[in-house]
Amino acid sequence: MKRQKVGLSDLESARLSYGCMRVAGTWTPADITTEMREKGKRAILAAYDAGYNLFDHADIYCRGECEAIHGEVLKDSPSLRQETQIATKCGIRFSGEPHADSPHRYDFSAEHILWSCEQSLKRLGVETIEIYQLHRPDLLMDPAEIAEAFTTLKEQGKVRYFGVSNFVPSFVSALQSALSFPLVVNQVEIHLGRLDCFVDGTLDQCIEKSITPLSWSPLGGGWLGAGGKVADDNPQVELRRKVQETLDEIAAKYEVSRTVIALAWLLKHPSGIIPIVGSTNPSHIKDAVQADAIDLDREDWYRILVAARGASLP
Questions:
Q1: Which of 77, 98, 111, 284 could bond 279 through an S-S bridge, CB–CB 3.0 to 4.6 Å?
Q2: For position 77, what pLDDT does the model report?
């Protein structure tokens, strides 16, 4: 795959990232079997082999086990570390932590950020994380306190660059105002069933500030991908099936899968969206790479947009 710069950093990522949220095969650590761990390792290795070099994690994915599985891959094949970049996230706390009556919440306190980073480094078995992100906006966010924590991690060599996830533009601006270095990514939900970022200023800000948008769930949880189905009782069944039909028509024109066209549609945007592919099926991981070679013309791009809107443009 071709490479692109990540924000105002010296990192270069393939145009697709590999998302490791599913590599444990469950969200419950006690349910992981040896077979599931091995399947997760094979998925990560398939992504390496297919040319992905930016791997997306979060400390909450199977409560850290996804990071640990990746750490096992790196321990078995240490040379892979030199060829790849790791991004991970912190800031979400589960109910029952640290006390039985503690609620599910978000925590951007300096103490929690520093502690979370240490845990991720240990699970991954690495000394430095390339991109460290805040996972979901904490309404008690104190930009100055976060800046202090980020600066500490940067000076200690534990993190190279920082970013955010699920932030609206005003939150990005508030945090950036306290930092002496640029945020390099904003990871948000962008796909043909979620068009908000195209009109709420998120992608405009990414272009203005040279922040790279990372698209989580670029296939809408699967329904936009090859073989994806829409249930008869889905409240948007007609709209979604029209989107699938349009994607299939254009996929036939380019002689690729529906998955490839859905991803290529995101890649066309000038903000430099990097879709995060989360399949654990090696053939699907490899198939997605073809999106890098597809340059949709403007007519096809807008045909797909109109189908996703469910209405003509004004």
A1: 284
A2: 95
Q: Where are the domains of the chain?
A: 3-221
* Whole-structure pTM value: 0.97
The one catalytic residue among 52, 61, 132, 161:
61
215-249 per-position pLDDT tens digit = 999 999 999 999 999 999 999 999 999 999 999 99
Structure tokens at 29: 């650590």
Give the containing element (helix H, strand E) for 14: strand 12-14
> What is the SS3 assignment for 195?
coil
The two three-digit tokens of residue 9, written as one number:
């950093």
The answer to whether 61 is a known catalytic residue is yes
CATH homologous superfamily for the domain 3-221: NADP-dependent oxidoreductase domain (3.20.20.100)
The DSSP result for 56-106, as a single string, is E--TTGGGGHHHHHHHHHHHH-GGGGGG-EEEEEE-EE-TTSSSTTPPSEE
Residue range 133-187, pLDDT digits in tens? 999 999 999 999 999 999 999 999 999 999 999 999 999 999 999 999 999 999 9
Q: How many CA atoms lie within 13 A of 66 on its CB side?
A: 28
